[in-house]
Amino acid sequence: MSQARLTLPAPAKLNLMLHITGRRADGYHELQTLFQFLDYGDELSFALRDDGEVRLQTEIADVPHDSNLIVRAARALKEQSGCPLGVDIWLKKVLPMGGGIGGGSSDAATTLLGLNHLWQLGWDEDRLAGLGLKLGADVPVFVRGHAAFAEGIGEILTPVTPEEPWYLVLVPQVSVSTAEIFSDPLLTRDTPPIKVRPVPKGNSRNDCLPVVTRRYPEVGNALNLLGKFTEAKLTGTGSCVFGAFPSKAEADKVSALLTETLTGFVAKGANISMLHRKLQALL
Ligand SMILES: C[C@](O)(CO)[C@H](O)COP(=O)(O)OP(=O)(O)OC[C@H]1O[C@@H](n2ccc(N)nc2=O)[C@H](O)[C@@H]1O
Ligand SMILES: Nc1ncnc2c1ncn2[C@@H]1O[C@H](COP(=O)(O)OP(=O)(O)OP(=O)(O)O)[C@@H](O)[C@H]1O
Fold first, then answer.
1. What value does the mean pLDDT of the chain take?
2. N or C: lower Cβ tally within 10 Å for the chain?
3. C-beta 34 within 6 A of ligand 1
4. In the 8-state DSSP scheme, what is residue 63?
5. Into how many domains does the chain fold?
6. Domain endpoint, select from 160, 194, 223
7. Which residues participate in catalysis according to the annotation?
């Protein structure tokens, strides 16, 4: 008998601003950043296995099976919960890797929430976010599913509701290693923390930008091209750059002009992640 599959989205995120305010003793950086989701992302399908095995059935180039964040998330949840069940997982990879739009982290969060549902573990969001943080600094916001102002290393989250414009996201054909940017000696690490809430307008800078554009001229090139039409920003440690538009039609118009030379996509900003909207609909 064929097993029904549970299919769930793993949306991208944007960092609408990113300030680096310090560095902890363990080398991780203290940040202040605004996360918003996109209605655009990967898709994962899950089917129960009763032999306890965790198997990702889709190969992704350059990521060995056991290092994939999906497999690591599933195994960590299985171990921590003592669940005897296993799972087959299929991945439709849409998000560019090393793009700063959180693909790996979002895949991990979708795996945690999907398996919590499939294995009927009954874990609450705090517990899932705590386990997620061990997999990556960006995982907790995807577990919680609400646009947020983040502090700490990205895990202290205050929900926010910024406008939800349409975005044009350009994808320079380079994969940026987050660890490499954070270890660059030239990185600004002493931006004074913003103490006022909500974050005052005008704080849209990304402190990683100078280091990223110095190392990856393709990113600077994309920022310059998009900057002719709207304020162009870098998300996370790149490589993706984005700009906001009041309508899909306007984003599409600029996209048509720029994607002759650059890869990109148009997507709507979302303060509630499409993963959470889908899970809500299932319950
Ligand atoms: C830059 C952001 O994308 C902003 O949303 C995130 O802070 C990065 O989150 P992530 O990709 O989940 O990062 P992780 O997988 O936890 O860390 C990758 C590497 O980035 C560096 N790292 C990451 C996050 C952080 N707050 N400080 C850091 O110094 C560390 O060297 C770490 O080894
Ligand atoms: N399921 C996965 N999807 C993508 N990358 C993965 C996955 N599992 C492990 N990785 C590894 O993680 C690296 C970073 O990938 P990811 O797509 O999350 O980058 P990113 O968008 O820059 O992340 P972030 O914005 O969180 O810094 C990849 O280069 C790859 O080696």
1. 96
2. N
3. no
4. B
5. 2
6. 160
7. 13, 138
- Residue 151 domain boundaries: 6-160
Here the CATH number for the domain that contains residue 154 is 3.30.230.10
Query: What's 241's domain CATH number?
Result: 3.30.70.890
Rama region for 7: left / alpha / beta (φ>0; ψ in -120 to 50; rest): beta
Please list, in sequence order, all residues whose beta carbon lies within 8 angstroms of the beta carbon of residue 275, skipping any fewer than 6 positions away.
8, 9, 10, 11, 106, 109, 110, 113, 142, 145
Residues in the chain: 283
Q: What is the pLDDT of residue 261?
A: 82
Q: Which amino acid is at 5?
A: R
What is residue 199's three-state secondary structure?
Answer: coil
Q: Which conformational region is residue 195 in: left (phi greater than 0), alpha (psi within -120 to 50 degrees), or beta?
A: alpha
Q: What is the mean pLDDT of residues 126-139?
A: 97
State which of 115, 141, 160 marks the end of a domain: 160
Task: Indicate if the pLDDT at residue 145 is higher than 70.
Answer: yes
The answer, yes or no, to whether residue 201 has pLDDT greater than 90, is no
Same-domain check for residues 129 and 28: yes
Phi, psi values for residue 200, rounded to 5°: -60, 150
Any idea which of 142-146, 236-240, 255-259, 272-276 has the lowest mean pLDDT? 255-259
pLDDT > 70: percent of the chain: 99
Secondary-structure percent of the chain, ordered helix, strand, coil, rounded to 5: 30, 30, 40
- Give residue ranges with CB within 6 A of ligand 2: 63, 67-70, 97-105, 107, 138, 175, 178, 236-237
Query: Which band of pLDDT confidence, cut at 50, 70 and 90, is reported for residue 1?
Result: very low
